[in-house]
Amino acid sequence: MLSGSPIHSGSFVVTNRSVLAIAVPMTLAYLTTPMLGLVDTAVVGQFGDAALLGGLAAGALIFDVVFTSFNFLRSGTTGLVAQAFGRGDALEEQAVFWRAVLIAVIAGIALAALAPLVAIAGQKFMGAEPRVSEAMGVYIRIRLLAAPFSLINYAILGYVLGRGEGGLGLVLQLVLNGINIALCFLLGLELGWGVAGVAWATVTGEFLAMLLGLAIVIRRFRAVPPLPRHRLLDMTAFLRMLSLNRDIMIRSFSLLAAFALFTRQGAQFGTVTLAANAVLMNFFLVAGYFLDGFATAAEQLAGRAVGARAAAPFRQAVRLTLFWGFGLAGAATLVMLSGGANLVALVTTSEDVRSVADIYLPWAAFTALSGVLAFQMDGVFIGATWSRDMRNMMLLSFLVFAAALLTLAPAFGNNGLWAALHVFLLVRGFSLLTILRLRVRTAF
């Protein structure tokens, strides 16, 4: 129903099948991203050096602080394309895509040029020991060269998901991360390039995936009437996109700032604890990407319903994506509780890191359940383009997290640090749920 040749209709029915048609392929697609993180960590972990592992973790975090702040190019594009799709406005779908690409090119070139400054700022922020800082700097300087390709890939994926084409989204992500993982082993391990090899693998993967994605989308656009230039450069639409993107950027930056504080606090507990938390955070990301598949279904279906001004499908989309999200979160938690210790042993050869990670494994396992509502509500609000509410609730959640961190980490050490992360996830979800009830009354 939502792939191949979707139906442009103001009236449509949201079923388990229509949710799963988007969520299942996108869950598989998103899971390749933390799998890539696990492979990166495992490749560097084979050198048996906690400083290299800590440097990779810190470098990846700084990279994510920069790039996830630009994730609006994926999620904002999805929401706007889904609404245009709901209205049956094919020209606006195309215009949204090219506006996003234009922003991606400008921002990507700027980020690539600023790579040395970002590396220096990241090293100063983390304040880790010299060998950790050195490895982090190498990683950031190389990986940021992929910035223009990465941001264009966000726009391509946003367009595809806005149309509910989860299968095509899966193919694009498999190509991107498959190339990346293969090159990680080749450059990082076989050729012994270590952290630099892992970074160059990312640059190459992003570039090749961008070429494939652009070829598919441009070929599709050739089959429909050309987009008039005045439609592309419609200032009202551009300003709406920029306003939406600004709010999502603030929200994303706040989210990454919370993770940066989490990692920085872990670094204060020592290099071994920093490395152990890095391994466990990859497990949290695996659970998160499980949930992101259903959040993406919520984005497309909620956005389509808002575009079509259809209240019943909107409510059904919220109910079904939450139901499936909780089911998967419970399953992810059970898997991590039962098999997490074996996964930790697979990822790192360092006995010190393994023993510390095993202690805090239950905290990481339960992040799926405490975070499910936050992920799903984000999807609904992005699809509906209620970005101001999402931004405000994220800022509130960040303040609560900071207070919890300052209170719990000094008192309970690394246990307190993980407890503060759970507080953050719960506040995000329930604050948005409260706002949703008010929004639905006025939206339809």
Automatic annotation (TrEMBL):
PANTHER family named among the record's database cross-references: PROTEIN DETOXIFICATION 44, CHLOROPLASTIC, PROTEIN DETOXIFICATION 44, CHLOROPLASTIC-RELATED
Homology family: Belongs to the multi antimicrobial extrusion (MATE) (TC 2.A.66.1) family.
Name under which the protein is recorded: MATE family efflux transporter
Source organism, top-level taxon: Bacteria
Cellular localization per UniProt: Membrane
Pfam families cross-referenced by the UniProt entry: MatE
Gene Ontology terms for molecular function: antiporter activity; xenobiotic transmembrane transporter activity
Database matches in InterPro entries: DinF-like, MATE_fam
CDD domains assigned: MATE_DinF_like
Predominant subcellular localization, coarse grouping: membrane
Membrane topology note: Multi-pass membrane protein
Keywords: Membrane, Transmembrane, Transmembrane helix
Cellular component terms per the entry's GO annotation: plasma membrane
TM regions (residue ranges): 12-31, 51-73, 96-120, 140-161, 168-189, 195-218, 238-262, 268-291, 322-347, 359-381, 393-412, 418-438
